[in-house]
Specification:
Layout (H helix, E strand, L loop, with lengths): L1 H33 L2 H13 L8 H7 L1 H4 L3 E5 L4 E5 L6 H11 L7 H9 L4 H14 L3 H41 L4 H10 L1 H15 L9 H4 L23 H18 L3 H18 L16
Antiparallel strand pairs: 1-2
Helix pairs in contact: 1-8, 1-9, 1-10, 1-13, 2-8, 5-8, 7-8, 8-12, 9-10, 10-13
């Protein structure tokens, strides 16, 4: 019984962490979209790739190409009646290679003409890179384009790293904010799940349903947490588990509980969903139908 209850407490905490992580992820994605981080990092990555940090040369020409313009959105700022450019947040590698080679005049050239065109590129870094891929391709146009696309992919790996680091920093801040605003105190949550059988059963039931769903369906679980009588939010009434701490011991416990939750949320929703499913599997494997003990031991087989 003790082991089963302890596992259910852990299972319930994992479910709460999953739901709160989904909230953090949604906030993070909203912030990223508002500030166009993906587009900005892509823009910076391409300018670095083409050795054009001020975006006044080849990088500007690339973004002005009709292929790139077809996925670039112009938006009007409502209050200032001005137009601004929203750069694409993603570029396929074939679109990049076609636009770049077209801008440097390399499209439709024979092997000999192509080398002359590449040698005439004023941007030394780009010229060196393209000539390297040209020599490696031995004049084969398809292999040459594949090399250019591989170069682009390598640059985009760095861009992805920049984006992940930015998102991770913001996630830390959001995890702390969500934990404090919702008073998601892990110590108090664990205590409630341990002492209140009804709450624990309700949370475990929701967790079981969530474990059987696909990742796309998890967003529906955010609203379900309001239906559970777990101590989230703040209160001023004495005796309420959400009460503001009133002595040193309670303050220490509250800080510890909030910090534990904050750290847990930084692992992200995919991590907690994976853990939830694994623990659900352990619980399912451990559940056995109860049988009354027989009055007599069965006879040994002969």
């Amino acid at each position: 019984m003790f082991g089963s209850a302890a596992l259910e407490v852990v299972f319930g905490l994992i479910f709460v962490y999953l739901v709160l992580s989904l909230i953090c992820s949604a906030l993070n994605e909203t912030i990223s979209s508002i500030f166009a981080w993906r587009a900005d990092f892509l823009h910076e990555g391409i300018s670095n790739l083409l050795d054009d940090p001020k975006v006044t040369g080849l990088a500007k020409d690339l973004y002005d190409h009709s292929l790139i313009q077809s996925v670039t959105r112009t938006r009007r700022r409502r209050f200032f009646d001005k137009e601004g450019t929203r750069y694409p947040s993603y570029l396929p590698k074939d679109m990049f290679s076609l636009a770049l080679l077209d801008q440097v005049g390399a499209m439709g050239k024979s092997a000999g003409e192509l080398k002359q065109v590449l040698e005439a590129i004023p941007n030394e870094q780009v010229k060196t890179v393209l000539l390297t891929y040209y020599e490696e391709a031995e004049g084969d146009a398809k292999r040459f384009r594949a090399g250019v696309e591989s170069w682009f992919d390598q640059g985009m790996e760095r861009v992805s790293g920049w984006y992940r680091r930015r998102v991770q920093v913001v996630l830390w801040a959001l995890a702390l904010l969500v934990s404090v605003v919702l008073n998601a105190d892990s110590v108090r949550l664990a205590s409630t799940l341990w002492t209140d059988d009804a709450v624990r059963e309700a949370v475990v039931a929701q967790a079981d349903r969530a474990a059987g769903e696909s990742p796309d369906q998890l967003a529906d679980r955010v609203g379900s947490i309001d239906e559970l009588e777990i101590p989230l939010g703040w209160a001023l009434d004495k005796g309420d588990p959400r009460d503001v701490p009133r002595d040193v011991g309670d303050v220490f416990s509250k800080i510890l509980g909030l910090m534990v939750t904050s750290v847990a949320l930084t692992f992200g929703a995919p991590f907690w969903f994976d853990i939830l499913r694994k623990v659900a599997g352990v619980r399912s494997a451990g559940v056995r139908p109860r049988r009354d003990a027989p009055d007599q031991e069965p006879e040994s087989p002969r």
